[in-house]
Design brief:
Layout (H helix, E strand, L loop, with lengths): L1 E4 L2 E4 L20 H15 L1 H4 L23 E2 L3 E4 L2 E4 L6 E2 L7 H18 L7 H6 L4
Antiparallel strand pairs: 1-2, 3-6, 4-5
């Protein structure tokens, strides 16, 4: 992600990992040099097309505090409800919040809208009720 910092222009690399998954490689890293090295290794192993665009001279932390490790627990709400015999659907980050730091709500809203459309078109002859709500996102 291109950005401007106090130290000038930079490109930020984000790696979002499933806990204990193959990209969850930053646990226990406490010093900037170790973080930088782990990022270099992780990008090289899992994203070779991105690694090929990185030059050694330009790769590194802007300063000693230029890295962040955090854990965000996804929150998933029930995406549908019946209210006064009306089927109501939620969409995007109002229902499924992946990562509030990188703003995944817009991406999730697009994905959710596509899933809702596919489910409703497939079930256009059905009553739009709890049963259809259970199908959304499972197809």
């Amino acid at each position: 992600m291109p950005t401007v910092t106090d130290s000038g222009r930079a490109t930020i690399l984000f790696i979002e990992a499933v806990p204990d998954g193959i990209l969850d490689t930053f646990k226990g890293i406490k010093i900037p040099e170790a973080f930088e090295e782990r990022m270099r290794i992780t990008v090289g192993e899992h994203f070779p097309e991105i690694a090929a665009r990185i030059t050694s001279a330009s790769f590194g932390l802007i300063d000693e505090q230029a890295y962040l490790q955090t854990v965000i627990t996804s929150i998933i709400h029930r995406p549908h409800v019946m209210e006064n015999h009306t089927f109501i659907l939620g969409c995007g980050d109002s229902v499924f919040l992946t990562d509030p730091i990188t703003g995944q709500g817009c991406n999730m809203a697009s994905y959710a809208a596509e899933q809702i459309y596919e489910t409703l078109v497939t079930n256009k002859e059905a009553a739009w009720d709890e049963a259809v709500g259970q199908l959304i996102g499972t197809g």
